[in-house]
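Reply to dn_fold:

You asked what the input looked like. This is it:
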Amino acid sequence: MSGGRRIGVLINVIKNLILFVLFCVGYYMSVNLVVLLITVFSNKINSGSWVIGMILGMIAAPILSILTVIKLNKR
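and this is what came back:
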């Protein structure tokens, strides 16, 4: 294995790590954002919708994060 290949692999690993960190941060923030929005709305409706919002947030957040990662990889 030559030095050039090793650097290429290292760059790839670092790129994947950065994408993974962005994925985690994006996931965490989008869940919190959805929960916050639902909490604001559920205060006007009832506390039952908060649970629904939490579940919807956990479904929507990974989909948004995966789409973001796909867009970053296409660049």
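Helices lie at 3-44, 48-74.
Hope that clears it up.
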